[in-house]
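Session log. Operator J.P. requested a structure for one protein chain; no other inputs attached. Running the standard single-chain path with token output.
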Amino acid sequence: MATYVTLCVVLILAALFLGMFFAPDRERLFFGFFAATWTIGVLFWVTVFYVAWHFLSRWW
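Structure written below.
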């Protein structure tokens, strides 16, 4: 679990910095936070579906 959390944090920070790196000068912060927020959303839903699949697979 700690490895997954570390991976999530690294992916979020990477998205933040990559979004800021590839953005135009005036919109660096917006693009960085947009990329990080999008990554958090994707990781949230991946986690929800994985946990649901893990628990539901025990009953079937």
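Operator note: Helices lie at 2-21, 28-59.
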